[in-house]
Amino acid sequence: MQQRKPKVCAAEGAAPEIPVSQGAMACDGWPEAEGARAERWPLPRKKSLALERKRWNTVVNVVLVAFVMAVPPFVVVYGGGGVAPAVWIAAARARLRRDSGDGSFPYARSPPDKLLGGLLPDGLDERSCRSRYESSMYRRNPGRRPSPHLIAKLRKHEELQRRCGPNTNAYNLAIEQLRTGRSGGSPECKYVVSISYRGIGNRILAAASAFLYAALTDRVLLVDPSNEMDELFCEPFPGTTWLLPRDFPLASYTNFSIDTAESYGNMLRNKVLSADAPAAELPAFAYLHLDHDYGHEDKMFFCDDDQRLLSNVQWLVMRTDLYTVPGLFLLTAFQEELDALFPERDAVFHHLVRYLFHPTNHVWGLVTRYYRAYLARADLRLGIQVRNFDPRHAQSPHILQQITSCVWREKLLPELLATEEHAAPAPGARSTAVLMTSLRSWYYERIKGMYWDRATATGEDVSVHQPSHEGKQQFGKRSHDGRAWAEMYLLSLCDVLVTSGWSTFGYVAQGLGGARPWVLHKQPENLTSAPDPPCFRDVSMEPCFHAPHVYDCKMKRGMDTGEVLPHVRHCQDVSWGLKLVDPKLYKA
């Protein structure tokens, strides 16, 4: 069969890229097909004969490896195993391939734990959502282990989602009650609806926040299906759906805003709600406006008395573009339960995002093909996420200097020789693959060119890759969101991360990967030189709550909420924001 030649793609005016992988690529940078291999140059006869002798010398080793590979299935499967042995054996084969010089398959440093220590439920259909149980095969960092209390809470909540979710009698009764306009006493099931809007990073943070609130208050979480939520993420709960049915009677809920009369803040301001109102007289739903522009009365959501009032409202509709979890830790009513669920306070989002968000098969294909083509063979994988909030910084030499200063000062990448001389690679020198993500390609092209034009001071090889450059953020566009989600996930598979301050894109990647990143300082608008220092090591992998409340609910006055609890502190990238930290690592 004639071998198909790979496409050759080059941007106009761009320097040709050194071929660093063997996968055939489409012009947008994504692998065109799995398993594609570049054509090889014919070897000289002497080298060919030497290679043949080397192959014959390893025949015995191959036979021994085959024997070892055949034994574990017999021992484990007949010892009561299930799917797990096959996963472990695949990982073992991957490590053997890597040891033999074939890095085309992912590997883990230990037998992969497909359930993530019990975080994930067992028994879901693997074919409909491959990423759920395959992701551990691609991670060198196994992540934090969930607490027994969190595991038990998740299994209990899954049962609640099945009992009260869509297409159940309980859900149908709740919908009928919603249509009456009143909550109706003590309902069997209560709900929180998370509105999906803005960028995919914001949507993930918002849904994760809504889920934790739902779990703490024994509510069913239903996610607004708009903005391709069903095409980007697998269903997280077994035996039911988390997607809000499209015939939901509040037809205009996606347009709710700070001005909506049914918002909790407006109902407080207009005396529609009061703490002494009988439950039967409460409205059928309340809209929780927890967006970045929310007002003082909306922020009463983070007060204990207001939570007691809201507990009697059957339907809550929540809009936020924030990670509101640190605010939940400040609520006295939730603190004991949260302490039991998350004894490691700096790993809350790490557990939530790995539990809830699994790429659909299409997105997972984007992730795995790119990973195998460009990242799997490297000894070290460095992810660099560049986010420019000011269009004037799209091609800034100062920001380029900021990026290179960060990776060189922190010894994340080797520095370059100032001359044209070639540094011989030291024995055992590692190879590094740099994965860059950005809306534009300018920084990627410059850094790639640096490591092509000059040798590294250590002699190690550095390859630089960027999957896409969409130019601008495109809200609600399927192809754009799918690639953004794939790139977030690819970043999370890197060993080391450099992210951009304020960016929800970076927050999601560091949470998925369980990594404390180096963070590039957000640049001022009137940028005249590279920030110095260029970056800092974040104290926690938790996202930052960008717009927290600053109110003492008991004393009815302003308060610095970053000084209340040792594990809820101010963010380093957003000084007024709040984030969860390990108190032992935090330095004010």
TrEMBL record:
Biological function: May be involved in cell wall biosynthesis.
GO biological process: cell wall biogenesis; cell wall organization; xyloglucan biosynthetic process
Membrane topology: Single-pass type II membrane protein
Annotated protein name in UniProt: Fucosyltransferase
One Pfam short name: XG_FTase
EC number: 2.4.1.-
Enzyme class: transferase
Similarity comment: family membership: Belongs to the glycosyltransferase 37 family.
Highest taxon of source: Eukaryota
Subcellular location per the Swiss-Prot or TrEMBL entry: Golgi apparatus, Golgi stack membrane
Keyword terms, alphabetized: Cell wall biogenesis/degradation, Glycoprotein, Glycosyltransferase, Golgi apparatus, Membrane, Transferase, Transmembrane, Transmembrane helix
GO molecular function: galactoside 2-alpha-L-fucosyltransferase activity
GO cellular component: Golgi cisterna membrane
InterPro entries per record: XG_FTase
Primary localization: Golgi
Transmembrane segments: 56-79
PANTHER family named among the record's database cross-references: FUCOSYLTRANSFERASE, FUCOSYLTRANSFERASE 2-RELATED
